[in-house]
Amino acid sequence: MQLLRTKLIKENGKWYQVQELDEKPNLDHIETVSGSTDEYYTYFELADTRNVRPQQRRLFFALLNDIVRWYGAPIKDFLKELFYTEFEIEHDGKSISLSDNAKSSVSDANDLLDRVIDFMFEWHVEFKEGYKMLTKNERFYLYQCCRHRVCMICGNKADIHHVDVIGAGMNRAHVDHTKRHVMALCRKHHGEIEQIGSQAFSEKYHVPVEGVKLDVGTLKKIGVQGNYGSD
């Protein structure tokens, strides 16, 4: 993964992104995968190049403590090296550090945290110490619950609950779900929120009930069919 300097240019009322490359790209490869070297598609993600934040470091180690507590053995150093190594492999040998004087970016640290959280959801590790910090960024936690189809209340397998109710008779496959707020709730808690209402549900479990919006890629990955335009 390469960090590219990008410029925004406006011409004839349209905005364009221009990326500065350190070297000439492999045109043969581009033509093979895209059929043309004049126009092709790339993935885009806005990088936060600020230095890693102390809050990210505290969250990282809080999550490691949750995994250690779940596993029942003092493996924090092993876990740190495991996730650091995974990051380096994925980023072609680029190292990462969460120390105060580190040159790693906020985006780097977020990538690392995503790996830890993915691990915890995959292995059903209960969030305890880490949850106290995750709730300060509740939307991020709700997003991860949706992404992994894990109930935000009990951690069991979840359905996707639409906060913005889809009217009776509407075909969900014809709805653009990127424009609607959703939450991940198991059948039990899905039924409960519909029975007692969002406000009472929020007060009972001390959770936000506004939901989050998901991008097309995430919706497709978790199996939510809909009308996503030309995509």
From TrEMBL:
- Family matches, as InterPro entries: HNHc_6
Pfam families to which the protein is assigned, alphabetical? HNHc_6
Q: What is this protein called?
A: Phage protein
Q: Out of the domains of life, which is the source? A: Bacteria
